[in-house]
Amino acid sequence: MSSLHKKPVYYERNPKIEWQVIEDEVILIDPYESEMIRFNGTGTRIWQELNGRQSVDEIAEKLSVEFGIVLKKIRKDILKHLKQLVRMELIQERRDPARED
């Protein structure tokens, strides 16, 4: 696997966030803002992959194949989406993906 980053970046969902898949879309409740958030198909797939054990590059490679999108473009889109989720405190960076909580 070719890495686009020297140091892999891992993210995981905030365990305080309640979520479920309804009609192929992730619906979650932001406990900080008390609002419902709905992801489209791509956002749903990204959310489902955020387990803290897959790097951003691994997720991008998987979704590039799944959606037929150029790797560089989908990686850029994923990173933009992840930055927004971090700002909203819906996900967090995981420093040690080998660690089991």
Summarize the structure.
The chain has helices at residues 41-49, 56-67, 71-87; strands at 10-13, 18-22, 25-30, 35-38, 51-55, 91-94. The chain has 101 residues and is α+β, with helices and mostly antiparallel strands. It has a single domain, classed as Outer Surface Protein A, domain 3, CATH 3.90.930.60.
Written description of the protein model:
- The strands form two sheets. The chain has a three-stranded antiparallel beta sheet with strand order 5-1-6.
- A hairpin with a 2-residue loop joins β2 (18-22) and β3 (25-30).
- The chain is globular and about 35 Å long.
- It is built from three helices and six strands, in the order ββββαβααβ.
- 16% of the residues are buried.
- By secondary structure, it is of the alpha+beta class.
- α2 (56-67) packs across α3.
| Count of strand segments | 6
Low-confidence parts, pLDDT < 50 over ≥5 residues? 1-5
N to C succession of SSEs = EEEEHEHHE
The rounded distance between the terminal residues' Cα atoms is 27 Å
The helix content, as a percent range, equals: 25-40%
Quote the CATH topology: Outer Surface Protein A, domain 3
Q: What do the pLDDT scores average to?
A: 87
Please count the helical segments.
Answer: 3
Please state the second-level CATH architecture: Alpha-Beta Complex
Main sheet overview: 3 strands, antiparallel
Radius of gyration (CA) equals 13 Å
Strand content is 25-35%
Query: Briefly, what CATH class?
Result: Alpha Beta
Strand order, largest beta sheet? 5-1-6
Number of domains: 1
